[in-house]
Amino acid sequence: MKTFRNKFGIEVNICCASCQFKDYHSKTGERICLLKEQPVDSKDICDDWHLSQGLENAGLGDRKKIKI
After folding, report:
1. Which neighbouring-strand residues pair with 4?
2. What Cα–Cα distance (Å) separates residue 34 from each residue in 22, 31, 48?
3. Using alpha carbons only, what angle is made at residue 22 by residues 18 and 26, rounded to the nearest 5 degrees?
4. How far is 12 from 20, CA to CA, in rounded Å?
5. Is pLDDT at 56 greater than 90 in this prediction?
6. How far is CA 15 from CA 18, 27, 55, 63, in A?
7. Phi, psi dihedrals of residue 34, rounded to the nearest 5°
């Protein structure tokens, strides 16, 4: 699986789970892609992937734990 390092050096997998365009269906809880408007699996990968804002800002805290 391909990975990406954010500005704090945290390694993130490039997949739907870390994408800005993921959302969840309100009734079924199923993961959906906002761009394709269809269900996706957390490990799916596409060319439209963009790092989610939460993971983009994730950095190391005082106790060497990942802080979002």
Report:
1. 12
2. 6, 10, 11
3. 135
4. 13
5. no
6. 6, 23, 12, 28
7. -70, -25
At 60, the amino acid letter reads: L
Q: Is the pTM of this model over 0.85?
A: no
**For the CA atoms of 63, 1, 40, 8, what is the dihedral angle to 10 degrees?**
30
* Cβ density class 10-42: b for 16+ within 10 Å, e for less: bebebbbbbbebbeeeeeeeebbbeeeeeebee
Cα–Cα distance, 41 to 38 (Å, whole number): 10
- C-alpha 63 chain-centroid distance: 24
Amino acid making up residue 36 = K
- How many whole angstroms separate alpha carbon 29 and alpha carbon 26? 6
Amino acid at 9: G
pLDDT at 7: 87
**CA–CA distance, 15 with 27 (Å, rounded to integer):** 23
